[in-house]
Amino acid sequence: MTYRNVSKSHKFYTPNWLTEVIIPYIREGSRIWEPACGEGHLVNRLKEFGFHVVGTDIEQGVDFIKDDLLDEDEFDCIITNPPFDLKDQFLAKCIQFNKPFALLLPLYCLEGTKRSRRHDMYRSLKDVSVIIPSERCRFINGDKNPNFSSVWVCSGFNLRQQLIWVDVDSNRVADRS
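Above: the chain sequence. Below: its structure as tokens.
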């Protein structure tokens, strides 16, 4: 499947509370590239916390997987919720940049039928941490709001632990904003 053919039913946008899970781990003053910005949920929330964020998307004509439209000195890290169908391609592309990144991925991306290829990619990283929210996420997608366990897979952030559990305020989760 090409990036341009990602199914609309697989475009799951990030609620604010899940963006807030990653914010304490982003270095202050970081310039962030969000290459699958969609409707801008993640970009807007990161900007509200004072980060400089460049949001691009295939629907704007910027194909993260095929194009290198941002010069590497224009961003410090990549933070994104990649299209569901392209999580492995986004992981591979982030590794190619050799910059810190955080990808919001389904928990099962750490296992499954394709895990051998993914594990090889994870092994190639200089450091990898997984940030695990205490609640499942109900993503934003028009009339469909899928609910599943998601984690932030991070590399290059030099976090003190490889596994980080984050307790999510149940009031924030309930409101799903």
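The CA atoms of residues 72 and 153 lie 21 Å apart.
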